[in-house]
Please model this.
Amino acid sequence: MSLADAEDSWGIEAYLATKAHLRPASKRRYEAALRALMASCEQMGVLDPQGLTPQVLRKVVGREIMSRRSRATVDVELAALRGYLRFRGLPDQGVAVGRSGQRGRRLPRTISKQEMRERLDAGVSPAGLRDLAILELLYGSGLRVSEAAALDRSDLDRVRALVRVRSGKGAKARVVPASAICLERIDAYLAERSDSKEALFLGVRGERIGVRAIYALVAKAIPGAHPHMLRHSFATHLLEGGADIRSIQELLGHSRLGTTEIYTHVSRAQLTEVYRDKHPRGR
Model:
């Protein structure tokens, strides 16, 4: 049986149809992972879901998934496989070997508080008012790059100093605080514009700014940085300042606390310093 002939028997499309809550990009990753696993199974002579024994699963998980370098990629592909097996009413014992602990999770890179302060307080040059406003939002409010690009003028609440984020992962809306300096820079940027377009930030062609343009302006303003690094720094600096992990979870828009807990690694050095300084037996 060929790969094309076997697709219907695997029922991948039917499974993905039950995942309407997933973002299109996540659904494509699920599909790609399952297609690769299906092809690997066929090479082993397994042509339908009923052949997915624990022994077969262990082999394909080791060959197709655990060889991935990124912990995030491994997690996504294992989630896709476990969900597919549940959908088909099959046991997932062979998938358990690939769960957390097999590989170290990639830790987020951050920018120091001092460098962020220097970059943001440097003035308009080399970044313009728009770019500085975006940098303030990414670092000061922890927005994802797609969320910053999707902001409208009406998403700002200047009275309460809040920003409504409407396009987070999983289409979850949330409200986050914005600093006074951030709102000042946004207003200064808007004062320079002569249009009445609803998009908060515009690109060079006068349309809503794109994600790639934000990546470019961040790299220009902070060499070696990318937008998500500012989000990582936002969370890390909050944690170092004493914010509790659940508050950070809400600000970041994470649905699971475990996703936020990765930021606790950054505070270990600070915790050690506090222990040495404050605890009577720490010296």
Observations:
- Residues 3-98 form one domain.
- Strands lie at 156-157, 162-165, 174-177.
- The two ends are 70 Å apart (CA to CA).
- Confidence is low (pLDDT under 50) at residues 1-7, 97-104.
